[in-house]
Design a protein that fits this description.
The chain has 20 helices and 13 strands. Helix 9 crosses helix 10. The protein has 525 residues and is α+β, with helices and mostly antiparallel strands. The protein is 46% helix and 14% strand. The strands form 3 sheets. The protein has a 7-stranded mixed β-sheet with strand order 7-6-5-4-2-3-13. Strands 9-10-8-11 form a 4-stranded antiparallel β-sheet. It has a two-stranded antiparallel ribbon with strand order 1-12.
Length: 525
């Protein structure tokens, strides 16, 4: 996770297919880097997961395999072929073996990958940090820190002084570091790939063994000496003392500085995101079909009951429930969604904001502003807590989505900055400690209900804040508490299929019904 999260990297995104951003999108991005490390020539792959982590029990059912295979093939996270990636991998002549072994992993989403072809063997260890974000922590036995937000050039060598002197005099770079181990390399982080001429000059040096070029996998790149105007809510309020800006305007200030782009570009980038979200909701309300899932297209039934005036509650609330359901159903049928902030919680935020805006008959620009407001609340969560259910339970996913949505809804209703922050604080307070226990090892139930709960909680908290209810605990302190509570949730209740509703008799019966033939890639240690 970047020290300074980007709204478009870490909070609203990625655009993807699959049940889980932590598993599908993140694994695909890790595998894309693996592909580059092997110069796009992979023949044999060994993938290892720790038995005590999340991946050991979810790698097949929540899409880690699918994402990895797609990444090894060089695909994007929204590629329509992803559900059949296993077939395409075999056609490409790539052999895969998966082992569940004690790899001494500290993080529950740790991938240890060995890659081979006829000429070489490379090793890479990486973690999924939540919401599709990744960090490569080791390459060929040497510790590194790569988030996929730079062009990374690795110059494998026997000696570094000549190489580093040449590079510093010849190229524009963000950082140059020498990593020494059994095999050593110079790592160059830069905004663009090294010129072919530079690579040729490097290859001509006696100390250079070979060069690897890894392309960025994130939409917004980092840069040297990156600065943002604030990174906590407290700092944001201090920054805004003499500006009197709304939350969405502050979001633009932040992301323009973080991404080094104009305010207009930030706004239009978010517009493209809400178009994808809106399209997913529309598709969901037409009905979705997919064999390998637990829940059918339930939003159609809700839509019929709502039209017949057979439901309790106001139009906005019921519309929100319907939209949340539609979005989750598109996700579960392998349609294209935006992980906001994660795939498992992709319904709560857009469902709440689109439902409210449509009930109020607001212009599209207002949804863009609300999503920017929500995104900035997400920045504070990403920087100081987590979006990964494997680390913080469902509180980190649907809880975060609800807190972000509450701030956005206040903006849609014309509330103040203070009220937006209070709404986010109240909503996050209400979601502390929610566990992650998917039924049948699928990200469908109780995930759908928790997305609905998060969205309707957002509406309630927005109305409380608009009525000037006291938040009591400042937003920054609530986010700190989220992190502390997440650390205390037992690992069996953090997306491992080992606790909660996941291990009820009914859930195990559903899981057995869904179980396919044994994974042919899997072998015991």
């Amino acid at each position: 996770m970047s020290t300074y999260p980007s709204i478009f990297n870490d909070v609203i995104g990625p655009v993807m297919r699959g049940p889980s951003s932590s598993h599908c999108a993140a694994s695909l991005r890790i595998a894309r880097l693996c592909r580059d490390l092997m110069d796009e020539n992979i023949k044999n792959i060994l993938i290892e997961f720790d038995p005590n982590g999340s991946l050991a029990t979810t790698h097949k059912s929540q899409g880690s395999d699918m994402g990895l295979f797609g990444g090894f093939l060089g695909w994007e996270a929204y590629d329509e072929r992803l559900p059949e990636s296993e077939k395409y991998l075999a056609a490409a002549g790539i052999n895969v073996e998966i082992k569940i072994c004690d790899i001494k992993a500290d993080h529950p989403n740790t991938y240890k990958i060995r890659l081979k072809n006829d000429k070489e063997t490379r090793n890479l260890t990486a973690i999924s940090t939540g919401g599709g974000m990744i960090e490569v922590i080791e390459i060929d036995g040497v510790g590194v820190a790569m988030a996929g937000d730079y062009f990374e050039t690795l110059v494998y060598c026997t000696e570094s002084d000549e190489i580093i002197s040449f590079l510093k005099a010849s190229i524009a770079y963000d950082s140059i570091a020498f990593h020494q181990g059994e095999i050593s390399f110079v790592e160059i982080k830069s905004q663009a790939p090294l010129d072919t001429i530079i690579c040729d000059e490097l290859n001509a040096m006696d100390s250079v063994l070979f060069i690897k070029c890894l392309k960025p996998v994130l939409p917004v790149m980092s840069r040297h000496n990156l600065q943002v105007p604030f990174i906590t809510c407290h700092e944001m309020l201090a920054y805004n003392e003499d500006k009197n800006k709304s939350l969405w305007e502050l979001a633009i200030d932040y992301e323009a500085a973080r991404g080094n782009i104009s305010a207009e570009d930030v706004f239009e980038k978010m517009r493209k995101i809400i178009h994808i979200m809106g399209n997913a909701i529309e598709l969901g309300l037409k009905g979705t079909h997919y064999e390998d899932r637990i829940l059918g297209s339930q939003s159609l039934q809700f839509q019929q009951k709502l039209a017949a005036k057979q439901l309790v509650g106001g139009d906005a609330n019921n519309r929100i429930i319907m939209y949340v359901s539609a979005m989750m159903e598109v996700k579960s049928s392998m349609g294209v969604i935006v992980a906001a902030p994660t795939a498992g919680s992709c319904g709560a935020l857009p469902g709440a904001l689109f439902g409210t805006a449509h009930a109020m008959d607001l212009h599209e620009d207002e949804i863009v502003k609300a999503m920017l407001s929500a995104g900035l609340i997400g920045v504070f969560i990403a920087a100081h807590a987590t979006f990964a259910a494997e680390v913080g339970g469902c509180m980190a996913e649907t809880g975060s989505g609800g807190g972000m949505a509450a701030a956005g809804i206040v903006g849609l209703k014309g509330g103040t900055l203070k009220q937006s922050i209070a709404a986010a604080s109240l909503a996050l307070q209400n979601s502390l400690g929610i566990i992650c226990d998917p039924i049948g090892n699928r990200v469908e139930a109780p995930c759908l209900g928790r997305n609905v709960m998060a969205a309707t909680n957002a509406v309630s908290c927005a109305n409380m804040a608009l009525s000037d209810y006291e938040q009591l605990i400042p937003l920054d302190e609530v986010i700190e508490t989220m992190k502390a509570v997440g650390d205390q949730i037992h690992h069996t209740l953090r997306c491992t299929n080992l606790g909660g509703l996941s291990i009820t008799k009914a859930a195990k019966k559903i899981e057995a019904m869904l179980e396919e033939e044994p994974n042919k890639f899997y072998k015991s240690c």
